[in-house]
Design a protein that fits this description.
- This protein is mostly beta strands.
- It contains no helices and 10 strands.
- The strands form 2 sheets. The chain has a 6-stranded mixed β-sheet, with no helix packed on it.
Length: 111
Amino acid sequence: QVQLVESGGGLVQAGGSLSLSCAASGFSFSTSNMGWYRQAPGKRRELVASINRSGTPYYAGSAKGRFTISRDNAKNTIALQTDNVKPEDTAIYYCTSFDHWGQGTQVTVSS
């Protein structure tokens, strides 16, 4: 059974740090491309960043220069991190293997 479980969301102050983690199980993690999406209230779900099985990252426009995606194939986890979170980063963040999705974790940034 495929499971993607996000953690690390919550209330963060603007300008602060945010670290999200996703624990994956039930599929061949090391050979899978992985990603983070987010969905803000009233908006469509959008890609934040992805990382291929070789560890090469890709960042969507809004995430470039602020977010870092990483993976640990030994632990079957991916992470998303920023040291400069903004109010517009408020959203539900989803971990995905592009075949399956996690339940999401809420991130709220206060100004």
